[in-house]
Amino acid sequence: MQIRVDKYIQELLYENDSVNIPGLGGLVTEYQPAQIDHVQAKILPPARDVTLNTNLPIDDGLLTQRVADAHQLSGLEAEQVIRDYVESLQDALNSGEIIAIEGVGRLYKNHSGELHLMSDHNNFDTAAYGLPAVTSPVIQRQEIKPATAVVAPATAATTKDGADTWTVISDWFQQNLWIVVSAAMVVFVVTVWLLFFNDTQDPTSGLSEVKELPEDRVNVSPGDIEDDELVMEEPTAPGEEDNNLSAEEPAPSDNSTPPEEELDTESPTISPEQNVALIRIGLFGDRGNVTKLVQKIYDEGFEPYTREKGSLIEVGVQFVYDDQQEVRANLRAVQKKFEEKAKVVE
């Protein structure tokens, strides 16, 4: 039974970046971006062309498996078919013949006995397969010279007045140059201080210190935040504090309710080897808005995080991922549920 091995080589190049032929080398496809041929006035689509790498003579198993599956052969039988095919190619090449591999190119040996491949320039990029070259004729543009404006000569009086004005300005700058330089330096120093060293929290924001959510939490709600954590308390004198404590202390009662059971916020610890991504939803200056958004993130089944950014609080979603496709999927979900401008920051 005659088996056309070259047909399976062409099929595998559409599915893989390289296919090794035991005893010959590897056929490797390389991506070529779209190009403009100025000589032929054509726009060529992106493509994947094939080259021969004689340093890859080891069998990668792709060709053997494809032949075995196509003809219901065992692995040993398929390997024997490929060995016979390679031996026939070697005999023909050693005799000076040029061997054609259908849809791939032609193999030949030069005067030094080195094996080469002349590619048929078949496009193995399935994403751009079938796109033809587009003819784009050269557009001839005529240079348009701008019209020269005719300027009326200035009168002697105008010239004299203008010269006097610039003379006065020049003399003033020469006499007061140190004032101008000093003012510029003051403005520069103040600007740098405001941008890089002014970390004072905005007193009108009403924010107290924000607790950073633990990094090892995965979709576990921390419970409701107490209201007294959201209010900035006014300082009181030592005497007034004792009076307030004694006045506000309730009398003991038999009907007093037992204290609420403390909420367990323990969660499985994330392994250090796991990859963690952060998607920022936004920056907020109001603690109440931060609390509502964190609870909403838990309600939607995500793991939130918060961290300080100067006088603002950054709120977002954190999760463990295995590949970039999972990161993009979570980013689309966060943009759909919370904020279209959400983005991955880490």
From TrEMBL:
Disordered: region residues: 214-271
Organism whose genome encodes this protein: Flavilitoribacter nigricans (strain ATCC 23147 / DSM 23189 / NBRC 102662 / NCIMB 1420 / SS-2)
One of the Pfam families matching this protein, by short name: HU-CCDC81_bac_2
Domain CCDC81-like prokaryotic HU span(s) in chain numbering: 4-60, 61-129
InterPro entries tied to this protein: HU-CCDC81_bac_1, HU-CCDC81_bac_2
Transmembrane segment boundaries: 177-196
Name used for this protein in its record: CCDC81-like prokaryotic HU domain-containing protein
Keyword set, alphabetical order: Membrane, Transmembrane, Transmembrane helix
